[in-house]
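#lab-general

N.A. 3:47 PM
ok so I finally got the sequence cleaned up, no stray characters, all 206 residues accounted for. can someone with queue access submit it? mine expired

B.Y. 3:52 PM
send it over

N.A. 3:53 PM
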Amino acid sequence: MAEHAIAANGHWYAVENADDGDPNNPYTDAQLSRIAQILELTSRPEIGRFTLQVTDSPDQEGLGMHNMGGAAWGGHSCPDATKHPNHTRSRARAEIVRRAKIIRQYGHYPAQPTSASTSILEDSMLLNKGQDAITPIALPDGIKSVRFFSNQAAQLAVDTRDGHPVTKLDLGNASAQVVTVPNAIHAFVAHRLDGGSNDISVAFSA
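B.Y. 4:20 PM
back already:
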């Protein structure tokens, strides 16, 4: 029982993660995958029976945060820092949910490629948030495609910087959208076309 969040114990599971004494440190890749494993397991119909999604409210099921419970959950700021938070850990939840869904579908993360498919690399990132936010994306060597995912409705324009018109994406919870990397292109520029309030995660495939 988590005594610091006792009001949540009847309806919520909790995961504790090391941060080297500073919650502004991002989760390691291993931490992201381990949380995703726990999330997928506890959300199964025979266990927790909740939806694989991000939530910011105690009244909505999904992957939430300790701080969303307010005083009833101890009045904590975690997973973010109390002073000068950069919100790197709370914003990582979309990526955790994405990995949990891959685990649900394939049994592990990353998904093992078939002979005709691509391999998903471990490198991933979140786009900048905000109205009209722009994110330059440096592409790792050998990348053939870039995947964009949001657990909520979002609109995005991707400039592949090869002289062609931008690729406009309508994102949602159903699946990731894939943009192919043209030859000799080593960077994309992503431009939010919506309000930019929710997270969009980016993963690279080779």
